[in-house]
Amino acid sequence: MYVDESGTTHDPNQQYFVLAGFCVFERQGYWLATQLDRIAARFDPADPAAVELHGSPMFGGRGWWRSHPKDDRHQAIEDALKVFLQSHPSNRLFASVIRKSVVSPQDPVEAAFEQLSSRFDKYLMRLHRSGNTHRGIIIFDKSTYETTIQSLATDFRTIGYTWGVIRNFSEVPLFLDSKASRSIQLADLVAYAVFRYFEKGDNRFFPIIEPRFDSEGGVVHGLHILQ
User: Fold this and answer.
1) Directed axis angle between helix 28-40 and helix 70-85, to 10°?
2) CA pair distance 33, 181, nearest whole angstrom
3) Which domain of life is it from (predicted)?
4) Which of 64, 193, 201, 227 could form a disulfide with 205 if both were Cys (CB 3.0 to 4.6 A apart)?
């Protein structure tokens, strides 16, 4: 599962913190990256690999993105999210949306990670019970939360979390530079779409991905909202 955050834990002007991402069987990663490369090539046909698809700068036109028209930037976010919408049905979305005031003084990163990791673990457990056994791993963008998340992950596998012990992960979380991974970039866009929906009431992007949150029997397990 590739995961990124949106929102910050310390900004008093933001109500929400989001951890979100998607799980994908390893062979699907190449197809997703190829489709995202085509979107990046719109902005630099000579070197699409140099284009980082990053939600907040793309939306706001900051930094490198400043020279590109707003409509083109926003359409690229939409199209990248549609890549996931159109991907193999085994690929599932997960998100934890935390209103920071509700969990205070607890760290919202801890609350969100507990929800995300436990829901991914239970998804893997459902697969196992159906005879399709897999081990999972969570891959994050490099962030200031690395130490917190590594410590939590170790505790969940040994001491346990609120609802039990993590049983289906093959390793503690890994951290990658988002510039090197289209999958991390897609996780960032997913997190940003969720964040804008809850923080800003912006429904341009969220409805695109909403049908792909992990669910079973009409019950949505992949989207956790605490507000």
Assistant:
1) 170
2) 8
3) Bacteria
4) 193
Polymer length in residues for the chain: 227
Q: What is the pLDDT of residues 128-181, one digit of tens each?
A: 999 999 999 999 988 757 777 877 766 766 655 665 667 788 877 888 999 999
**pTM score, whole prediction:** 0.93
Cα-based angle 226, 146, 74 (whole degrees, multiple of 5): 65
> Could you tell me where the beta strands, DSSP code E, fall in the chain?
2-6, 16-23, 92-99, 139-141, 174-176, 215-216, 219-220, 223-226
Supply the DSSP symbol for 65.
G
Give 8's contacts (C-beta < 8 A, 6+ positions apart).
Answer: 14, 17
* Omega cis (within 30) before 173: no
Query: How much is the mean pLDDT over the chain?
Result: 92
